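Ops channel
N.P.: pipeline sanity check, posting one input/output pair.
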């Protein structure tokens, strides 16, 4: 894998992670850093190129995000996107002003295809514009390289200085040839060699883990989620026989999950320890109905169980965790924070770990899934539905009981099975056992049973979402199966609320 990096400086744009992913899809490694990163630190990183992201501010306003002007003097090619383009113009002495008429949506752009940035691009191509400011006067040495009907300078170039800018967003699918534009920047302007892939990552990461861990033992809290499972498989490959995985079954898992996790890791070169703490968790949760209190109890109890098991192991050199890149980006820090699926961040320092191993720290979720398949994990685990740390406790409204969990598990399994095999567009879907009971009729007899809610949403970032418009026949099958196969349910409803105002989970 070529040791080259594209540095993405974040100016507050909503698409920063998408830019980083698109660069990696082109075969080049990328990292996101704050726009305030000092120029000398950038020089030490020696990136092959720099991309300035978009952002919601105006460059001419006081307090708007800015980078050191010295960044432009490092001799490293820079591509500015949207706000990033406007900032390049502003820093180099040009003028950016508010538009008389904003551009939001897909518009045809006329591009100068003689330039390397737009080589192989149609002279007129659809691009996504999203701006209320525009460049009205170019700095000395810059030339317009593209335009739309409302934006005379939709792209510019200063090839001698290695500075390029596009007012539109090449990272989104709406910009039809955006991937080619990014590819051109990487290979024709930054002269990258490429070679970044999950296969090359796996080979490199195995060597790095072995160098870091040596002969020490490693401890991992295995939640059964995608990240911790891939982390476990990777560590078992890198340091076979040195890894101990503690899987805490808190009794709040989905149907068949504990059995699947046992089976998946039974044949790997690691020490898999399953702790059945279901009775312990349920007793602590007895009588508790407030959502946040349930979460706190589960997090606290998980940390205690994990600590107890860790102490029984004796000396362990390293704690491993499945931190992935969005966790790092959202925290805004590069520090190694101890955390895991169930808030293992409460582990005391006196456990004496020499350090933390986070082999997935710079991977996006889709990369983690690809790596999991490379490591031989089953597709059912790698592509499973997202699951909150507190498990089914936040999908059973009110107090948690064995009876309620016994109703929700098969109902949730039916929802996931039917939507999964329907091919419907939905990014997350599950069942919720509401606290509502209603009158029904079954076999000419009166019932007074629970109502199950079905939740299915479409989202690209899980920060916002819209409900999925599932076909009536799919919803009908789900309702029929749940009311016929799950004892204690006589009514099924569908949640058609987006986020905001609702959240994805009900609690």
């Amino acid at each position: 894998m070529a040791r080259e990096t594209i540095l993405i400086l974040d100016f507050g744009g909503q698409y920063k992670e998408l830019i980083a992913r698109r660069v990696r899809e082109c075969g080049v490694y990328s990292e996101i850093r704050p726009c305030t990163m000092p120029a000398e630190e950038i020089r030490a990183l020696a990136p092959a190129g720099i991309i300035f992201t978009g952002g919601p501010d105006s460059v001419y306003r006081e307090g708007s995000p800015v980078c050191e002007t010295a960044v432009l003097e490092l001799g490293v090619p820079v591509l500015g996107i949207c706000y990033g383009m406007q900032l390049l113009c502003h820093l180099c002495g040009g003028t950016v002003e508010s538009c008389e008429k904003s551009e939001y949506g897909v518009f045809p752009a006329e591009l100068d295809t003689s330039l390397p940035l737009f080589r192989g691009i149609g002279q007129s191509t659809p691009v996504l514009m999203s701006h209320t400011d525009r460049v009205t006067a170019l700095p000395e040495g810059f030339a317009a390289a593209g335009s739309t009907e409302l934006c005379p300078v939709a792209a510019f170039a200063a090839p001698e200085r290695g500075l390029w800018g596009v007012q539109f967003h090449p990272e989104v699918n709406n910009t039809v040839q955006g991937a080619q534009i990014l590819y051109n920047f990487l290979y024709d302007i930054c002269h990258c060699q490429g070679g970044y892939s999950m296969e090359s990552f796996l080979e490199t990461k195995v060597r790095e883990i072995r160098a870091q861990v040596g002969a020490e033992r490693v401890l991992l809290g295995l939640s059964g989620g995608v990240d911790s499972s891939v982390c476990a498989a990777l560590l078992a490959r890198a340091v076979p026989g040195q890894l101990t995985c503690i899987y805490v079954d808190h009794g709040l898992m989905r149907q068949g999950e504990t059995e699947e996790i046992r089976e998946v890791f039974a044949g790997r070169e690691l020490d898999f320890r399953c702790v059945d703490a279901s009775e312990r968790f349920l007793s602590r949760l007895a009588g508790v109905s407030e959502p946040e209190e349930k979460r706190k109890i589960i997090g606290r109890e998980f940390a205690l169980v994990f600590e107890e098991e860790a102490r029984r192991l004796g000396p362990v050199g390293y704690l491993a965790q499945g931190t992935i890149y969005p966790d790092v980006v959202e925290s805004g820090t590069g520090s190694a924070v101890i955390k895991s699926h169930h808030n293992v961040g409460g582990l005391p320092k006196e456990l004496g770990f020499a350090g933390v191993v986070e082999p997935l720290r710079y991977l996006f979720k889709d990369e983690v899934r690809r790596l999991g398949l490379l490591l031989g994990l089953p597709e059912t685990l790698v592509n499973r539905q997202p699951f909150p740390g507190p498990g089914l406790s936040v999908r059973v409204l009110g107090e948690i009981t064995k009876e309620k969990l016994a109703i929700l598990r098969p109902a949730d399994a039916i929802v996931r099975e039917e939507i999964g095999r329907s091919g419907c567009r939905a990014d997350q879907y599950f069942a919720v056992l509401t606290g509502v009971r209603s009158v029904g009729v079954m076999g000419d007899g009166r019932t007074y049973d629970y109502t199950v809610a079905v939740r299915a949403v479409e989202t690209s970032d899980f920060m916002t979402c819209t409900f999925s418009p599932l076909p009536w026949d799919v919803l009908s099958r789900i309702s029929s199966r749940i009311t016929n196969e799950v004892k204690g349910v006589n009514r099924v409803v569908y949640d058609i609320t987006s986020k905001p105002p609702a959240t994805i989970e009900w609690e």
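N.P.: looks fine end to end. The two ends are 44 Å apart (CA to CA).
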